[in-house]
Each structure stands twice: as C-alpha cells, then as structure tokens.
Amino acid sequence: MKSNAIRTGKKERLLSLDALRGFDMFWITGGSMLAVFFAEVTGFDWLSNQMHHVEWAGLRMYDLIFPLFMFISGVAIPYALISKLEKNVPQKTLLAKVTKRMVTLVVLGVIYNGALQGNLTNIRFASVLGQIGLAYFFAAVIVIYTKSFASRLYWLAGMLVGYAFIQLFVPVPGFGAGVLTPEGCINGYIDRLFLPGRLHGKVFDPEGLLCIISAAGITLMGSVAGHFLREQSRTPWQKITILSGIGAGLLVLGLALHPVYPIIKSAWTTSFNLAAGGISFLLMAFFYLIIDVLKWRKWSFYFRVIGMNSIFVYLFVRFIDVSTLTGFLFGWSPELLGDFGQLIWIVGYLGIIWSVLYYMYRKQIFLRV
Fold it and tell me: Which domain holds residue 55?
C-alpha cells in the first residue's frame, strides 16, 4: 500500500515528521539497548536510568515515547483531515475513515496483548494501540466538527482543565479527592468499575478509560503544531519561533505544577501532558528546523525509514523474535569480543529490524491504519 504523503504548500514532503516519528520508535525497537550499553561502558548511570519508566511520579526520557507518538499523530491531522475538508470532502466520509482506523487499532491492540494465546477470561482490553486509536479518533472528531482553530483551542483547554479537575476534586470512595496513587487515583477507580478484563497495573491501567481523554488532549496539541506548520502565511522561521515558544511555555508550566499536581505518566496527569507536550513541540520545531528548513537531511534517512512504517515495526518486534535471530547470527560476538561483541550484537539487532523496514521502503510498502 502506498502512503499519502504529508506535504507543504510547495508539494514537498514534510520529512521532519517522518524522521521524528522514526526517532521516537527507535528507542522502543532497540535504541534503548544501545543507550544502556554505552551508559554501562562509560559509567554514565543517568542515561541508563532515562531508558526506564519512572516508577510513578516524575519524568524520564522513556516516559516521553508514547505521548510524543500521540503528538506526532496529531501533527498529521491538519494535513490528513483539514485539507480534505477544504476540498469539500463530506464530514461523514472523514468520520467513517477515523472510525475505521480506531476500530482497527483497538482490535490490533487486543491481539498484541495476547488475546489469541488463550485464557480468554483474563484478556487485557486496554492497550497502547487501542489508546492511540481512541485518542486520535476523539481529537479527529473535534477537528472535523469544529469550524475554527480557536474552537479547537477551547476544546483543548477544556480537556486539560477538566481532566485536572476530575483528578484533583472528584472523590474516590475510601480515599477521597486528589489522591494520586495507583490505588487512590480516580483513573484506577473508573478502570476497576468499568474496564473489563485484566488491568495492567492490577488496580489501574495506564491505558485505561480516563487516560484516553488525556491522550486525546496531547493528540490535539499535535494538531495545533500541525496547524502552524501548514500555514502558508508564515515563514518557516516564524513557525519555528511559534512552536518553540509554545513548547517552552508548556514545559515550564508543567514543571511548575509538579510540586502540587505531580507529573505522572501512568495516570496521564495534566501536568504530565503539559510537560510532555512542551517537549514534543520543541522536538518538532528542532526537527523541522534541521530537516525541512536547513535541509540537513542525510542523517535523518535512517529514522525516516522507521517512521514511515511505525505501526508495522511496533507489531513486528512483538510478533517476531528478533533476539533469537540476532543470537543465531551474532551470538558468538559477546563471548569472543566482550563489550565490543555486545555492541556488535545490539547493532546487529537494530540492523535486522532496519533491513526489513528498508526493504519495505524500497518496495513502497507502508502499513497505514
């Protein structure tokens, strides 16, 4: 299947978006192993710690991967949907398209969780793919059925403030209001009441029902970035300034709220959304500057190949035992060469994955849902 290119007014692909998506996926498809290796060799423990999720409250690099992906999917919304609305494509046609995408991702998410392996009484219905599909759906519906950019900003502000109000002021039986712990947060309470099947966190699920609203918020943030990137009335440098300014402001606000309203990825607190969204704006501005404005592109090809098949590679590393294949080809290297051999093994692992993606890239095969 050929993908629909995301293009600027000059009919040139927005390469920075593919590169940033690939950069994001790189870390969960082997990149974190490479970072941990260098951290262990150099004794740079900080980097190793950043490659693991924080236990509950706080923020590490690894916590940014999922919200950044949500943000990037939102950046594409003005190109994928608003452009069609401007061409008088019926709203119901676009609604059918995003509904199909949502259903497909929810089903794939349940399969990813192992629904086909048996034990049908203990399926985990919430999933990363499901949250991507649902959050994108709600953000897309807002964009499709609002007539102005300002209206979308009102929706975004309402979602962020409303979500914070629910978490801080709606009481949970036995705990009260504003108890942001796995057991006491309103997210977990709603999941225990209404979410069937197994919960990832036993008493809550980080991809649970209430989290979908917050994830839709950061997707809508991405659509704001996409709006400015798509504007023809602004120069590239004005776009970079706007994205950077918004990103810095959101990050500062999120960090400022942290002492009283903690940054918690698993509960998708509004403070987390602000901080993660701010960093996402800054990364989008940086990649756009380097790749699409200054046109320093050769270095980004590796990431663009990953980014153009992001959903496929996420499923690929789940269903294909790349470690066993890597061990078959490079298992000798750690034993004979020590640390350098371990590096060869990791690079081989990354190389196998990228080779598959590069083959698909050359054949113009892109999994789009």
Answer: 15-362
